[in-house]
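hey
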């Protein structure tokens, strides 16, 4: 038979698991909404990337074609993508750090991965204690 103290401990553990599950879901939403933008020093190229380094926008100043050669433009775009991706990875690590210290973020947020795949559905606290 389960004693009163053990029953209370079990209820407390179920509540903690549910709270942690909710916190992880909130963290996933924050990560999903992350983005970073990098602008070239000359202001000709601006790139925004999402949490996986996916390019969301590339904005070019209309004068870019007169000021930069095709290879310079290409190099600037690649550079801004890299800068923005590094920024968003840093932001992601900050959001995730309390939950998964020292875990590479790529392991959690590669293609087709989500936290919900790692989580069980929330537990329900036990009902009234059964009669002894």
């Amino acid at each position: 038979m389960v004693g009163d103290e053990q029953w209370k401990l079990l209820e407390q553990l179920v509540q903690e698991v549910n709270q942690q599950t909710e916190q992880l879901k909130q963290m996933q939403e924050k990560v999903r909404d992350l983005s970073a933008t990098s602008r070239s020093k000359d202001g000709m190229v601006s790139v925004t990337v999402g949490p996986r380094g996916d390019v969301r926008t590339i904005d070019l100043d209309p004068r870019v074609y007169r000021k930069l050669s095709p290879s310079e433009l290409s190099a600037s775009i690649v550079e801004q993508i890299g800068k923005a991706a590094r920024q968003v990875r840093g932001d992601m690590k900050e959001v995730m750090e309390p939950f998964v210290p020292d875990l590479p973020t790529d392991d959690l947020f590669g293609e087709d991965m989500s936290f919900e795949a790692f989580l069980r559905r929330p537990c329900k606290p036990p009902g009234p204690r059964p009669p002894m």
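The chain has a mean pLDDT of 82. Residues 20 and 26 are 10 Å apart (CA to CA).
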